Amino acid sequence: MTVLDPPAGLRVDMQRNRMLLVDAAGRLFGAGRSATISEIAAEAGISSATAYRHFASVEDVLAAYRFQVGRELLEFSRMAEAAGLELLNAVCHKWVQLVVQHGESMVHTRSAEGYLARVRSGAYYLTVQAEALERPLEEACRALGIQHPGDEALFLWNGFFDPREVCDLIGSLDLTAEQASARLVRTFTAALTGWSASRT
User: Fold this and answer.
1) Cα–Cα nearest to 142, from 192, 72, 70
2) Which residues contact 168 (CB under 8 A, 6 or more apart)?
3) Is the domain defined by 12-56 classed in CATH 1.10.12?
4) How many Cβ atoms are within 10 Å of 119's Cβ, its own excluded?
5) Element (H, E) at 24
6) What angle is formed at CA 119 by the lines to CA 129 and CA 58, rounded to 5 degrees?
7) For the CA atoms of the chain, what is the radius of gyration?
């Protein structure tokens, strides 16, 4: 997995502690547990005081974890040789695999602010995801013969591929990651086409 980029100028020991905290939060929440900063620090083997020097809240640690996963998706998207709808399929399938792999740790990053508002305000853990989807969405719109609706496409994508909904779909319908991804992509592209038509 790609390591979360620490703030510029952070000492090596501080970088290590930050990474330990992010990984510890992933393990705890991924196992279906809720945890406080103190519990995350204990899991990471460092003091609570040190943990609070890096993160003000559990939500901040989980956002860093979500960013880490987003970086993995971005690397996959950049390396993918597919094009058009095939590229969208590949990147969406990779995302579903990542959601399954990281489990509950992916569903705790919640905000009172909506997804599109957070993307537009530059929420870093969503910005990396948006970057990973930029080329797949552009190529999908071209293949579908529709005008790209900009970040509204991200809004639609999130409606189908939100980790909580992916986990629910797989668990409730007993689908494999491949089956869930295929259904979601087909439905998303239909929604994207309809959304584009409604804007003209």
Assistant:
1) 192
2) none
3) no
4) 17
5) helix 12-30
6) 75
7) 18
Residue closest to 142 by CA, chosen among 83, 186, 184: 83
pLDDT by residue (tens digit) across 146-192? 999 999 999 999 999 999 999 999 999 999 999 999 999 999 999 99
Angle at 4 between CA 138 and CA 158, to 5 degrees: 35
Contact predicate 174/116, CB 8 Å:
no
Residue type at 168? D
Q: Which two tokens stand for residue 193?
A: 């086409």
Q: How far apart are CA 37 and CA 30, in angstroms?
A: 15
How far apart are the C-alpha atoms of 150 and 146, rounded to whole Å? 12
**What does the chain come to in residues?**
200
Question: pTM above 0.90?
Answer: no
Beta strand extents in the chain (DSSP E only): none
Residues 48 and 58: beta-carbon distance below 8 Å: no
